[in-house]
Structure formats: C-alpha cells, structure tokens
Amino acid sequence: MRHNKKFNHLGRTASHRAAMLSNMAVSLIMHKRITTTLAKAKALKKYVEPLITKSKEDTTNSRRVVFSYLQDKHAITELFTVISQKVADRPGGYTRIIKTGFRASDAAPMCFIELVDFDENMAKTAKKAKRTRRSSKKATAPAAEEAAPVAEAEAPATEAAETAAPAEEAQE
To answer: Of 87, 107, 124, which residue is a domain's last?
Structure first.
C-alpha cells in the first residue's frame, strides 16, 4: 500500500529532485523572486517554508540543519540576517505564487514565486475602484468626451520625453 506517499516527483530521481529544490531555494533566497513552472513552485513552497521558519531562531543547530538542505553559505547568511528579521512576526505563509500564463514552447503553466515581505510593488499599488457595467456607461460617456482632447494634448509631450531619454542614455 502507498498510504501517505503522495507528492510530486517532478519527473526526476530523488537525488536530482533534492538538488533542484535546493538550488531553487537558494535562488529564491538570494533574488527574492524566481520564475518557474507551477508544479516546481508548489514543490519549492513546501521545501523552503520550513527552512524560513527554522531561520527565525538563530542558533548553531538551526544554521546546521538549514545548511544541510541548502549547501550555500551566502544564502544561509542572507536567510538568517535579512529574511528572518522581515518574517519575525509572521506566523507562516512566507511565499506567494502568482500565475503568469503558459510557456510558449510546451504550454506548461508558468508562475513566479516570491517572498511575501519583499515585494515592494504589491505593497505600493493602490486598488482601483471596481465599476459595474451600468455605472461605467453613464460615468464614462461624458467624461470620455472631455478627456479625449486632454489625452491628445498630453500624447506629444510624452513622446518627446521618451525620445529625449534614449538620447541622454546614449551620451552617458
């Protein structure tokens, strides 16, 4: 019987899978966000979250346990100094998986996995007001007529700015 032996083998041998997850975990710790397939991201999440929890307690034993999984001194230093301070008050859920579509070559579902507390773009983005169909028709019809001349007036200014920026970069 194969009770309680359900996990994704990712089409690899055990040693290859362990090495791949270790390398992906090091990349995630060092870069804070990596792009990969959805299956690998889910496997990586189960692999790296216990290591981040272990890093909250900075002891010699916890460093040795995490080093046995990662085998990278720089990643261990980053994990125990920078990341453990950011996630100190978080009870879990240190990573986020965001789907990005399908890969062109083989249509594999792609995503990026990132450390939650290190994403500045998601924290700064303001949420837009959700419009219904009825309100958008009434609200946008008069506003669209008024906004159209303004948008056309702003368009040449932005084009001029875009053409000026590459010229400045070329001089440097």
So the answer is: 124
Range of the domain at 163: 127-172
Q: Are 70 and 143 in the same domain?
A: no
**112, 98 in Cβ contact below 8 A?**
yes
The set of long-range contacts for 100-109, using a CB threshold of 8 Å and a minimum separation of 24, is 100/35, 103/37, 108/37, 108/38, 109/37, 109/38, 109/39
User: What confidence tens digit (pLDDT) does each residue in 103-153 have?
Assistant: 999 999 999 999 998 877 765 655 565 666 776 555 555 554 454 444 444
Angstrom distance (rounded) from CA 8 to CA 42: 9
Confidence (pTM): 0.69
* 96 contacts 114 by C-beta, under 8 angstroms: yes
Q: Which 3 state secondary structure label does DSSP give 70?
A: helix
CATH number of domain containing 39? 3.90.1030.10
Cα–Cα dist 81/27, whole Å: 16
